[in-house]
Specification:
By secondary structure, this protein is of the alpha/beta class. It contains 15 helices and six strands. It has a six-stranded mixed β-sheet with strand order 3-2-1-4-6-5, with helices on both faces.
């Protein structure tokens, strides 16, 4: 499939129509054998982001083995970047096993974006099942905030329901029931351990707002509930592709602090963040981004106007912010912009839109361009110069 690439055209190419166009290009990062030259050809002239700690390769091999003995898989994604925080090999790893998707950080993303993405992933699962001639699977999708218990019981009930077939089969063979085994997987720092701690009701798994805290797989027993149901949870390290082929996705991970800080240049990522916010705001008519709050946080210096009618670029915006607030310190300005976004100072924001939303925006732009091209040229100019010669010059000009 194609991933949306959120890039503004170069300043010299920005016509009024081009300023609001989103380009949909760039492959999903699933090709592990791509060379450096091929990677450069996919995104020429852009600083490359690479982050793949040694423990992840070992954990990935172990995870694939462990997934063979689990009953249900919970995949945790960042609600601000739902597409970029899913591993392209997840469908291959889990096969036909029940799959639960959890959008963590629901307090950071607008409800309209979560609703659109929920519909997209359900349609995607149905299409994938039809392609293999299988019945459409049930794919429960939950919005979750690790700072509260809201919705945690629904997630637990879904796991028990989807894993009930295990003990049904055991009962037919006169075997005692066993705990439902649930694997919790996802990218680094998306909230896997935080979700497990909420399910347990106590802090058992290490959790912090830093990628790479969990470095090995570990089983945690949830314990029996009032109905006697039991769950065993598998906590896993964050697993990412060995090579970030899709640099748009790699930049999104850096924006949301889901990748190691040593792997990227803050000034480059802050520039990409401003560009992404502007593009998503235009593509969704402001539904995914709080433009007014972002302008207020930037002391009234509106990036949406500056990168649009103002004729500036995202990079120039970061430079202007550095001059205004940080005495020319671009690194400090970039770090401040990234921290403001990560801490929610920019308001609710989702940095990715489903392909259907992007396609609708492109169709609207093409329709608008077609209408402008079909309009008779010079009609407005003629209307402005028409006047009545009998009354022209008649009036009270006293005081001129």
């Amino acid at each position: 499939s194609l991933a949306a690439s959120y890039r503004l055209p170069p300043r010299t190419q920005r016509t009024p129509a081009a300023r609001t166009r989103l380009h949909m290009d760039g492959p999903m990062g699933s090709d592990y054998d791509i060379t450096e030259e091929e990677l450069e050809a996919l995104s020429p002239g852009r600083p490359k982001i690479h982050w793949f700690p040694g423990h992840i390769a070992k954990a990935e091999r172990q995870l694939v083995e462990y997934l063979g003995c689990v009953d249900v898989v919970i995949e945790v994604r960042d609600a601000r970047i739902p597409r970029s925080t899913t591993h392209p090999l997840v469908p291959t790893w889990i096969g036909a096993k029940p799959h639960v998707i959890v959008f963590n950080r629901r307090d950071c993303a607008p409800e309209s974006a979560l609703r659109d993405w929920r519909g997209h992933f359900v349609e995607e699962a149905v299409a994938r099942a039809k392609a293999h001639g299988a019945e459409a699977p049930e794919t429960p999708i939950f919005n979750f905030n690790a700072k509260s218990d809201k919705g945690i019981h629904e997630i637990k009930k879904a796991c028990l329901r989807l894993g009930a077939h295990v003990n049904d089969r055991r009962a037919k063979r006169d075997l005692l029931p066993r705990a439902i085994r649930v694997a919790v997987i996802g990218f680094p720092n998306v909230g896997k351990s935080a979700l497990i701690n909420r399910l347990l009701g106590r802090k058992m798994a290490k959790s912090a707002d830093t990628p790479g805290i969990t470095r090995s797989l570990q089983w945690v027993r949830l314990g029996k509930d009032r109905e006697g149901a039991d769950i065993e949870l598998l906590d896993s390290p964050g697993i990412i592709p060995a090579k970030q082929v899709n640099q748009d996705a790699a930049e999104a991970l850096a924006m949301c602090n889901d990748i190691g800080v040593a792997s990227y240049d803050p000034e480059h990522v802050a520039t990409a963040l401003i560009e992404r916010l502007v593009c998503v705001d235009r593509a969704t008519d402001g539904a995914y981004v709080n433009a007014a709050q972002i302008a207020r946080r930037c002391d009234g210096f509106d990036p949406f106007w500056f990168c649009g009618d103002g004729g500036g670029t995202p990079e120039e915006f970061v430079h202007e912010i550095a001059d205004m607030r940080h005495r020319g310190d671009r690194h400090g300005a970039a770090t401040r912009l990234l921290n403001d976004f990560r801490k929610g100072m920019f308001g609710l924001a989702t940095l990715e839109a489903p392909p259907r939303v992007l396609q609708r925006q492109r169709e609207q732009e093409e329709e608008s361009e077609a209408q402008q091209a079909a309009a008779p040229k010079g009609a407005e100019a003629k209307k402005d110069v028409d006047f009545d010669l009998n009354t022209f010059g008649v009036g009270d000009f006293e005081g001129w």
